[in-house]
């Protein structure tokens, strides 16, 4: 209608602490992340149900679907570049983004200064050995290959943090800049905010995305959809 041609990329998180816990993941063989892949099977089950719902609602499918498990090399390379540019550091538990090194640029999508100062790591990771600032967030989480699914990396066996997955996947498919980034309003901070920080650190620029579009939630029987 408006003569504007878009390429819609949808990110699907299939590697995540909550998914792995929900799947009751067993013990994968070291060096083989798919030797016991119940967490990936669980994620694909819900992905299929989601797209079936979209089809019944006559919603067009995206031009590309970016699954974390299929972009692990891109994610590892993205983390390495952030570290090479001086915005990441390794601890005994993983690799963290240094918010302090980004300076005043950190907090671009925060609703208030209190948001930035109060930010802490994901649940269960509030106190980390060697973490320099409570705002710093995980780029890569080190895990045990004998008990936890993961991938080999320059920092050892582990899996990516949530925020880095989206930045790396969009970069691999859309390049250094995108026009519109959308998502739920609950993702504005810290998720989208941390995406901005990572992309600034990776690309050495401050105009990664031109516009954000955040949506409200649909509630059914008191549950957020």
List keywords for this structure.
single chain; 225 residues; alpha/beta; 4-stranded antiparallel β-sheet; two-stranded parallel ribbon; 10 strands; 35% helix
How would you describe the overall organization of this protein?
This protein is α/β, with parallel strands linked by helices. It is built from 7 helices and 10 strands. The strands form 4 sheets. The protein has a 4-stranded antiparallel sheet with strand order 3-4-5-6. A two-stranded parallel sheet has the order 1-2. Helix 7 links the parallel strand 7 and strand 8 (209-215). Helix 1 (17-23) crosses helix 2 (38-56) and helix 3 packs across helix 6 (162-174). It is globular, with a radius of gyration of 18 Å. The two termini are 30 Å apart.
In short:
The protein is an alpha/beta fold. The protein has helices at residues 17-23, 38-56, 72-84, 99-102, 113-118, 162-174, 188-203; strands spanning 9-12, 64-67, 88-90, 94-97, 138-142, 158-160, 178-184, 209-215, 219-220, 223-224.
Rounded to the nearest angstrom, the radius of gyration is 18 Å
Classify the beta-strand content into a percent band. 15-25%
Q: How are helices and strands ordered from N to C?
A: EHHEHEEHHEEHEHEEE
Uncertain runs are 121-126
User: How many runs of DSSP E, i.e. beta strands?
Assistant: 10
Alpha-carbon distance between the two ends: 30 Å
